[in-house]
Write a structure and sequence with these properties.
heterodimer, A: about 350 residues, alpha+beta, 9-stranded mixed sheet, 3-stranded antiparallel sheet, 14 strands, B: alpha/beta, D-Maltodextrin-Binding Protein, domain 2, 7-stranded mixed sheet, 8 helices, about 35% helix, about 35% strand
């Protein structure tokens, strides 16, 4: 089948399932994205300055571009949209594609997690069936499961925030675990030295600013930090649990059993075993589904299920997931849940 | 002249003096016909050589475009340059002068911030509570970006600086800085402190060679190292 026919057939399925065409802008305001996603995103973007010195970029990602459009047009309710277009990403690796042809769907303002997650998966799956690609397999993860695990552990609050925030940066995450394990976060010698300065600073005008931070802010964070409950042996045990959790990798049918034994062995509470219905639904769609806790760690905005579909040659042909925080981080005042997925046309071509 | 060897040396300060010392120790004495301010020189007894005194940053650029064959400049400037440029230049030898570190420095009174991890937390406070991003003033945007992102700090904004970066946090132009320091005195005198794990790069002067010219330069380099 030719690529044009692929697109036509896939779009037919998208429309039949109730998704409406939406064409996000190709050119985006780079500062708008960097302001919200941070300086590291700049590496991926093709940026240039217009005549006024304003920095623009080619859309690096169609999900982000779709969300920006959704916010701009001020939709009041949920939108089920599809798009067909290109995303442009810079890379130092010559093997990486710079232009990615994508066909995707998004449910923005998703009300019912489980139903919408399944809807997206079903639509993507029937599109792939429609273009007669057989023997596919799926890999699925659930980022929220990791967050539940961290919530249930006994570690200082700021460590929880830290571990959750950096889940999607595996290398740095490993550094964090090492640091938690060796407890090298707070140095008692320098704490003593700084305590002296601490009491000196208490007599300063508390609203005085030092490089944009009020004296009171600095002192209260210092105080919070040194009072963090810390226990060396406990941390070691916790790191072990996290590492063991991230090794869970099983067939979808064995997920329940595997998680139960993990929870029991480590004496954790049962919250980890709840709300797994979406993930379990995957087995109805495709028997060859593998569940992995260590999956979905390369895209920052995913917050729930994450999946990739592969062809018989193990090449990724589609990916998607739930991203409940992205719209807010792009400027929405309220929380807007969303889920979506895209088919990678480049990998369908022979 | 096809076999002419062009050598770029730093045009100012201690780096200039030490570079000349290094050449002299290897029995290659730079001599100049003009006055002290002349930017050109030659190596005594080596008629096919030409020395040009340039800004250390410029030396990297000119090695990249082939105007220079050999040069002495700082590792910090090489590592800050674009990947494309770095690929064209080989570090032939690290020299024992120009030793300095590129570091992250914060206001000394930020007593709650000791490590990059603390900085990361504070950067989120800036974003969440003040709705602004932590500003990092620097002469080294590339090195700074790579380092911060590798350490999990992403919520910041680079403020390019050309010099006297130490003043930035105290005149409201940035909150923290990255800069090069050899003794740490300038930082200290300006009420700044280096983070415990805030070492971005150990820099020193290097003998650099344009990769394209490696074959032509072999005899000369053999005499030098």
């Amino acid at each position: 089948m030719k690529s044009k026919n692929y697109s036509e057939n896939i779009i037919k399925v998208f429309k039949k399932d109730g998704f409406v065409l939406s064409e996000p802008d190709v050119l985006l305001d780079s500062d708008y994205i960097i302001q919200r996603s941070g300086e590291n995103f700049r590496k991926l973007m093709f940026t240039f300055d217009d005549d006024t010195g304003k920095s623009m970029c080619l859309r690096p990602d169609l999900t982000i571009a779709s969300c920006i459009k959704y916010l701009k047009e001020n939709f009041k309710e949920n939108a089920k949209i599809f798009y067909s277009g290109q995303a442009y990403r810079r890379s130092n690796n010559e093997k990486d594609k710079i232009i990615n042809d994508q066909l995707g769907i998004e449910i923005l303002g998703s009300k019912n997690k489980s139903i919408d997650d399944l809807k997206v998966l079903k639509t993507i799956n029937s599109s792939i069936e429609k273009i007669k690609i057989k023997n596919t397999s799926i890999k699925v993860g659930d980022v929220s499961l990791f967050q539940k695990l961290i919530e249930s552990l006994r570690i200082p609050e700021r460590w929880k925030v830290r571990l959750k925030r950096h889940f999607w940066r595996p290398q740095y995450f490993e550094d964090l675990l090492n640091r938690l394990e060796t407890n090298s976060d707070v140095n008692p010698v320098s704490v003593d030295l700084d305590k002296k300065r601490f009491s000196e600073m208490q007599s300063l005008d508390q609203s005085k600013e030092i490089a944009s931070r009020k004296v009171s802010e600095i002192l209260s964070r210092f105080d919070r930090k040194i009072k963090d409950p810390r226990s060396f042996g406990e941390n070691k045990k916790i790191v072990k649990i996290i590492r063991e959790f991230l090794k869970i990798n099983c067939e979808i049918d064995k997920l329940d059993k595997t998680l139960k034994s993990f929870v029991k062995k480590n004496n954790l509470n049962n919250s980890l075993l709840k709300e797994l219905s979406t993930v379990k639904n995957f087995s109805k769609i495709n028997k060859k589904t593998i569940f992995s806790t260590n999956f979905g760690r390369d895209i920052e905005y995913y917050t729930g299920i994450v999946f990739e579909i592969y062809n018989s040659k193990k090449k990724e042909i589609a990916r998607g997931g739930r991203y409940d925080g992205l719209l807010k981080s792009l400027g929405s005042k309220k929380n807007i849940s969303a889920v979506g997925a895209a088919i990678n046309l480049n990998n369908l071509k022979k | 002249m096809k076999n002419l060897i062009s050598i770029g040396l730093p045009s100012k300060g201690r780096l200039k003096e030490s570079s000349i010392d290094f050449f002299e120790k290897n029995n290659l004495k730079p001599t100049s016909n003009g006055g002290e301010r002349n930017y050109f020189a030659q190596i005594e007894n080596l008629p096919n050589s030409k020395i040009i005194y340039l800004h250390a940053k410029e030396i990297i650029q000119r090695l990249g475009d082939g105007t220079l064959d050999i040069g002495i400049s700082g590792l910090d400037l090489l590592k800050e340059s674009s990947i494309n440029l770095q690929n064209k230049i080989e570090v032939k030898k690290k020299l024992d002068f120009g030793l300095a570190d590129v570091v992250i420095a914060i206001p000394d009174d930020w007593i709650d911030v000791q490590t990059v991890a603390d900085l990361e937390e504070v950067s989120f406070e800036f974003r969440d509570k003040k709705n602004i991003r932590l500003r990092v003033a620097t002469k080294y945007p590339n090195l700074t970006n790579n380092f911060l992102v590798s350490k999990g700090v992403t919520q910041y904004k680079i403020i390019p600086s050309l010099g006297a970066t130490e003043t930035y946090p105290f005149i409201g132009s940035s909150e923290i800085i990255t800069d090069i320091t050899s003794t740490g005195k300038t930082l200290k005198d300006n009420n700044l402190r280096v983070l415990k794990d805030g070492f971005i790069l150990n820099s020193q002067a290097c003998l650099l060679v344009s990769k394209k010219k490696a074959a032509k330069l072999r005899p000369f380099l053999n005499s030098l190292i």
